[in-house]
Amino acid sequence: MKLGYQCNTWSGVFADAFGIGSIKDAFYGNVIMPMSIEELDKIFNEIAIAGFEGVEVFDGLIVPFEEKVEQVEELLDKNGLKLVAVYTGANFIYKDILPEELFKIERVTKIAKKLQVEFIVLGGGALRHDGVREQDYEAAANGLDKAAEIITACGLKSCYHPHAGTIGFTWEQLEKVMKYSTVNLCPDTAHVALGGADNLKVIDTFFNRINYLHLKDLSDKGFVELGEGRVPLDKIVALLKKKGYDGWLTVELDASDKTPLESAKISRAFLEKIV
């Protein structure tokens, strides 16, 4: 298994304000926006120092470099990193805006292809103000499948990321999305636990569709460094080994009271014990 790290510990995340007025521009933004090449270099450098070989970024981080991807490539080479995945997302359940959302995903995927990215991680599946309608699961699955077709046509791999605040959060919701969709799965171990599902059950049930995975830990205080929470990461990795998983494991931590580098080193030290 190969180990990667999501850069949001350094840069934070919020919904890009441009998305309020234009759906096709609704990228995941960063607290540091626009991201300068110097700031990106610092993030990549510290991820490498912590001992990781891959990195994942949000779509809003690479879009500003759409016409100058060679700058990002130079930083990756300099720090000995592979850009493994780009995270993007959409509502997926609203028919009228789906073409705009797919346009955005295609744009992100084409930039990612230039950077030799392997995975496009798809988040989303909106929750309505008055609750989920049963047909929303099929609509979300349809949107995910259309996005996956675009991603596959560009030569990249797609996977769905269950997340708090979306239609695929709980076990019952995830089961329905996976039933109606053919998209592959990227379980996030903390979000799976937060939604009340059993990570081991999710992996065992959907293993043949898991092509990428987020390792994240959870405590009563929120998301924490690996090994600091209650997610049974040792058992999860043991099950993945047993089943022959040899892909990427990407660590994610939204924020910490430590420096991002310190947090990354803590998670990396924990992974040494279990991976």
Summarize the structure.
By secondary structure, the protein is of the alpha/beta class. The chain has helices at 8-11, 18-21, 37-49, 59-62, 69-79, 98-114, 134-153, 171-180, 189-194, 199-206, 233-243, 260-274; strands at residues 2-6, 14-15, 28-29, 54-58, 82-90, 119-124, 157-160, 213-215, 217-219, 222-224, 248-251.
Structure description:
α3 (37-49) packs parallel to α5 and α10 runs parallel beside α11 (233-243). The chain is of the alpha/beta class. The chain has a single domain (2-274), classed as TIM Barrel (Alpha-Beta Barrel). It is 45% helix and 17% strand. It has helices at residues 8-11, 18-21, 37-49, 59-62, 69-79, 98-114, 134-153, 171-180, 189-194, 199-206, 233-243, 260-274, and strands spanning 2-6, 14-15, 28-29, 54-58, 82-90, 119-124, 157-160, 213-215, 217-219, 222-224, 248-251. A seven-stranded parallel beta sheet has the order 7-6-5-4-1-11-8. The protein contains twelve helices and eleven strands.
Structural class: alpha/beta
Mass-distribution shape? globular
**CATH topological fold name:** TIM Barrel
Radius of gyration: 17 Å
For the secondary structure, the number of strands is: 11
Question: How much helix is in the residues?
Answer: 40-55%
